[in-house]
Structure formats: structure tokens, C-alpha cells
Design a protein that fits this description.
heterodimer; A: mainly alpha; B: mainly alpha
Amino acid sequence: MEAVSTAAIEGSAGAGAFLDALLAVLFSLLAVVVVMTFAGLSVVAERKVCAFIQGRYGPNRTAIPVVAAIPFFGNFLKKNGLMQLVADGLKFLLKEDPLPGHVNKFWYMVAPAMALSPVLIVACVIPFGVYWIDGQIYPMSVADIDISLLFALAVSALGVYGAIMAGWSSNSKFPYIGAMRASAEVISYEIAMALSVLPVVLWVGLSSQTPLSLFSIAQAQGNLWFCITQPVSALIFLVALFAETNRLPFDVAESETDLVSGYHTEYGSFKFGLFFVGEYGHIVVGSSLFITLFLGAWSPFPGLSWPESWGWISAVLSLLTFLLKIAAMLFFFIWVRWTLPRFRYDQVMSLGWKRLVPLALLNFAAYIIFMAI
Amino acid sequence: MEMESFIYCLFCAMCLGGGLGVLALRGFVNSAMSMLVSMLGVAGLLLLMRAYFLAFIMVTVYAGAVLVLFVFVVMLIGDRREDRSFLSKFMLLALWAAMCACLAFFEPQITAAGMEASSAGASLEPGSILALSKNYGYFLFTKFLLPFEIAGLMLLAAMIGVIVIARLKRAGNTKA
């Protein structure tokens, strides 16, 4: 009797361990695939949406011989510029990899990896959806840690070293100026970003034991999204996000008009490709953070969430909701880029220090008082 | 070797190697990057001690902000490659070696003391003092309030000092 029960327990433990391992592998793949796919697709989307805004067609000529011959599907890929994506990717891979003679070789080689790796690390903690096992709710993230919000902010802050080291090691004037601008910009806006998140953490702390976990923040938005209850925080976080990801109107670090191409001027071929992917990956991860913090994560509408009783269908729907929201955020990023002109460097600095930081502090104080009452 | 002790050795190597790099490498930026490696190593050690909150605060504040500021200032004034004399290099290396020796000598005792303290006090499982950031904040603002406030006061003093020095310089410039 005892032997049977231990065997049964071992069996179930074995199955549980197998399931855990399977889910871990699945979520790791999910994190990488989501970030990389969206980074790739956003390159195409950027060109297509920009063309749409400017009243053009955008890329619709590139065709891969055999695939383009498939009826309907091939034409669909061609017209929507998806084959352009493949062509661009191959171009990065197949071009000659130049190594200028005047650069600091070690840091020149390491910098692209320093730009991309933090993005992929942060993707570990983002809950892309939820699933249920035995009535317990779990997040679809590689690592569900108590302080994943802090982890995400800390690691994504390290991404700026890629830009700094690229600019410095290039040993050339424009990249150098770009690197300095990038470091100054990131320091300034990081403060506003962290301050804007604090009220959210406090709010979640009223009901949850682990207010610094992205999962509990997402769960706390079951009734109302935080962009409704904390609009000022959401606005500051969004502006700081644009600055942190070096997007227009804040892309002073690589403004084509005055710095050629900023910190990656001296880069070409696949090293430039890594910066490119890192930049778009940063946007994807930043959007996911914004969605988790303010846009209700995987809930389709404010006040609604996918019911537990639907089981795995609900889990898939939650994932799809999250991905749809990322796509919407990417569209928003591109929309802003092709609508607003670039700020001057001094305007960026004064907006960060003289407006956003005081506003974030006031907002924080107001919420402390509100919650105390 | 156990996985955890392997990772421990890795982080220790990062700390010490980074420290060595700060002293031995030429150029300020190389030194700053070595310092980054060292800081990440310290954060990793804190993680191994289950002080998650402290580890990520370390990365956010020091690696993510303070060191970026260092690099910014270094780049602003230019990365002068100073050639240190052989004697000063030797002294710095000797200092590094002495620190390593101290660490190697005291490390077992510190670890043993830590183990004792942890077995006497809270457990090392999640939910202990440092694992939960909430408890961490609670202790920071109750038992350790005075040191916390003193540290804040010192930073404030440093800030006022910088502002005064900067203003003096500017006033002098306009007169001249």
C-alpha cells in the first residue's frame, strides 16, 4: 500500500517536473520569439505605416522567386512588404563586415551585444499571459520573481552602455556626441520613469503582498486599468519610455540631421543589424512593460478578463490579447515618430528635468495623500 | 562542484577581476567598464544571499545611473590616457592583492557568522527579511532610520558643496 502511494506520488511529481520543464522551455521560446518577431515586423510596419501617413505605398516590390509564385499568399507577402523584411535581414548577414582602423577593437565588437542582451534578459520577466493549473493562476513568463518590476527597470537601464561604448569606441566625433547625448538622456528620464511607477506600486501594495511583481500589478487591474486611475503616471511613463527607447521626438542620440547616424555611424553590416534589432526590441519590451503596468496586461477591456472556466482557451486568448496590445503600441510609436518633429537637445533636457521630474514628484505626493485618506 | 558554489566563484571572479581592471587598465573608460563588471558581480553575490531587493537596487542605482554619470563626465572632460609610474602601478596591484588575501582569509569566518545569524534568526527561504522588499523597507525606516537619515544628510551636504563650488567658479569667471 505504502509502496504504491509513494510510486504514485513520485509519478505525479515526475509528471509535474516534466510539465514545469516543458513550460519553462515553452515560455523561454515565447519570450525570444515575441521580442524578435515583433522587432522584425515593426521594421516592416515602420516603413508601411510611414508610407501610409505620407500617402505612399511603401515597400511592395521585393519578391522571393519561388515563394512569390504561390497564388494569393505570395502576392500577399509581396504587397505587404514582408519579403522586404527577409531581404533586409539577409542584407545585414551577407554584407561585408567592416572594421575601421581607428576604432577601439574590443569595445567596438562588444558594444552591439551590450545593446541587445539587456532587452532579451528583460523579456524573461514579462508576463505575456496567464494560465491555470488546478485552479492556481500562473503568469506566462520565464521567471516569475517577487520584484520583477525592479528587475526590468534595472536591467533595461543597462542597455545604454551599448550606445555609450559604441560611440566612445568608434573614436569619431559624431558617434561620440551621440553617445554623450544618449547617456545624459537616459539618466534624466530614468528618474521620471521610476517616480511615475511608484504610485502604481503603492496602489497595488494596498491589496497585494508583492507589489513589485509585474504579475501582481497586472492582476490588480482586474477592475480598472491603471491608465484610468493614474493617468498622470501613465503619461509620464509613456514620455519617459519614448526617451529611453531613443524614439522620435527624443532621438537626439542618433538624429540624422545633425549627427549623421549618431552612436552607430561607424557600424555596418551585422553589427549595425544588432543595434537595429536591439532598438526595436527595446520598444517591444518597453511597450510590454507599459501594457503590464497601465493597460491592463491581458484583459481585453477595462473590467473584463478571460474567465478561468474556459481553461486553456482562455490562456491562449490572454496571450493573443497581450500580443495585440503590443502591436497597437508599436503602431502608436510609429505614428508619433512620423507625426512629431524632433526636439532640440536642450528642449529634451529641460522637459525631462524641469517638467517631468517635478510633475512625477507632485503626482507621487498627491497619491500618497489620497491613499492615506 | 555544486552549481551554486560554481556561480558563487563566477561572481567572485567578476568582483575581483573587475576591481583589478579598474586599477590595471589604461584609460578612464576601460576602468569604468571594469567597475561595471565588478558591480554586477557584487549584485550577483547579493542575489546568492537572497537579498534580491538590494541586488536590483544596486544594479539600478550604481550600474544604471551613477556609473553612467561617471562615464558621461569622463567623456565630457575627455578620456586622458595618463601613464602611471611603475611604482604607483605596483602599489595599486599590491593593494588589490592584499584585499584579495584579506577576503580569502576572512571569508570562511564571515560566512560562518552569517550562517549562524541566519540559522538563529530568520530562515533563508523567500519571505525572510531581505527577500521581501516590504520587510526591507520596514526595517530601513524603523530600526535603521538614523543611519539612513545621516546618509541622506551627507549626500545633501555633498550636493550643496558642489553647487557652492560651481557658483564660486562662475562668479570668478564673470569678474575676470
